[in-house]
């Protein structure tokens, strides 16, 4: 009980010094709990939507694409309308309705602006059914009555300021449909951001499916008292157990839709938790420093406790109990902050178009438990070494104010272990650069990153002595005696300086590594474009990757001033190699002019002949794996058509980033085995301008596709800029998440300086007494902070560039062969680290400057 009282008293006595450590715990726990609450809420939102909107039983074609896939030909798989009557006659069926829907559509307003979501959520066009009343209600106007009327969801109407009577154009594979808004329907559950347009049944069948007597699904409602399982059996019997149809109960349909979203949500969840883990790791250094300095400042107190009978175990336990209190306080505040963070994320997502209601806010009981456990365990682990060190203080040494025991031998052992780990990590990174396969090299890369990181952390005190002296020559010596004092303060306790710098090092190492990888990706892709792409223009969907509808493709072909236009589509097929092995593969069907648009190297044979009748090419990896040679015959069973026997006319090099491993056939060859209404639409189109007419053709292409705003026309310069922007946006998101770790590291510098000022109270008083001014004192502390921040930045950036260089060597095996070090970014981050040091020193320097000289000299600590 005495140990507990002592721990509580010490915790309350040093609550100001504990505050920043508590903030570090708070931020890390908040990020973990916020991530869990946010993803749980998204799961709840989708679960409710999928469950409520699904009928009791759904009948769909066996080969229907998943909810996340779009049909390559723009027309969803369908079933005969007669199936609706068959299902309606089954026992236990109250109502059977045909549903005609498609997600391969674009909706634009009268000003040609895209009405679809910009967040990746689908645009859905469908006929209005009674089943829709499960999740929707008409709030104004009425359901569509004929081909000239549509109904839109209320969220889309509000977002785009649409009202009754406004005209919309629905662009589908079968053509364009113009109609006026006759009604608006609101979701009765949360809509995560999909744009929904309703048509009448006949118009939906004709315009979305291309035939008047088909549906995409049959939606079945059970009679009262009939279970979904029983209804499914009854419907299956009515269809004579036909294998052509897939039957799902409400739960099965909802689960299938959830699974299609689950992968995306899991990636987001674990990525965010990974960054929270980095913040926790950085926070460990802050807590270690805090308790190390508190123990050092309480040396005499600990000696007195030992002198009056406290055992090492009791002293150790007292410090650990303080850590438990810190962990509990920080974690509880972090859990509350995490819920607030989740709400903030939801509001931010709603602002960009993904509607998430706080009414669905989900805080599972496991979330606060995980947050509390993580916060307390991490804090206790971080405090263990200082607590153990406190227990080793002998009573006589402590009463002489000799401080915590210094073991030179342990320091040399630590340095030796650190150098060994660093050397092993460096060797693993070197092996990474020599790997022949990316999968093999990735294991060495992970090992190298881990060992070098731990190694640098362990030898931090040794590096501090060397690097801080070197930095001082450049930075601190310019400030004369004040600079020298700052240098000595930073070198006084290399272990503390090393731990403080290591906290900043981790975040900046990741920033540098990702900057090198991102910059190398852009440089490699740019070089590949210059070397391999001969087309002047590329036409594609700039957002969701939708195929190019025929009317837009026709508009491209009609543009004057073009030397040629290349159609390019993907087909699915089962391919049997000469060795008898069959696998699902993708085949690229293109016009022969594609050879001019993208230059591929043929290792054997002639690529031009691969575009001949009943001919194809294969990539070198596939050829090597299956023993394929030029002249061999491949059996190709097209998914939407017949089986073909195609002759291998060329084997292409896979030393490329564009179409790596692609198998080519002529579009006319593919069309001879796949029915016209099942042939995929163009995934992308290429065009070459006539000599000297590049500018005119570029403008004409943009004008021709002005009515189809989802498709972008890019020349090579545009394409490079888009690629650079995409990588930049991804890196900015990562940097934003890493900012949490850097904030915690800054708190570590602040806390270290603040506690260091308290530790040096008498020394500061003596320096003031012999003539050091307040301005000089504050400058000394600021300079100490700057050199510690630059020390951490130098280690982090150097380590990160090493990681990034090794990672790029792996990417080179996948075709990204250019190493590009983004020196402007690296130098900017290094310079900003000095500003971080200045910022971190503001409060400690201000407090030091306000000290009373006589009181400081008279103090015991």
UniProtKB/TrEMBL annotation:
The keyword Cell membrane applies. Residues 57-80 are annotated as: Disordered. Belongs to the ABC-4 integral membrane protein family. It comes from Streptomyces violaceoruber. It is found in: Cell membrane. One of its GO terms (cellular component) is plasma membrane. It is a multi-pass membrane protein. Its main location: membrane. GO terms for molecular function: transmembrane transporter activity. Residues 275-395, 737-852 form the ABC3 transporter permease C-terminal domain. InterPro entries: ABC3_permease_C, MacB_PCD, Macrolide_Exporter_MacB. Signal peptide: none annotated. It comes from the Bacteria. This is ABC transporter permease. The chain crosses the membrane at residues 270-296, 319-343, 363-385, 412-431, 443-476, 497-517, 733-758, 783-803, 823-846. Residues 19-237, 500-698 form the MacB-like periplasmic core domain. Keywords: Cell membrane, Membrane, Transmembrane, Transmembrane helix. The keyword Mitochondrion does not apply.
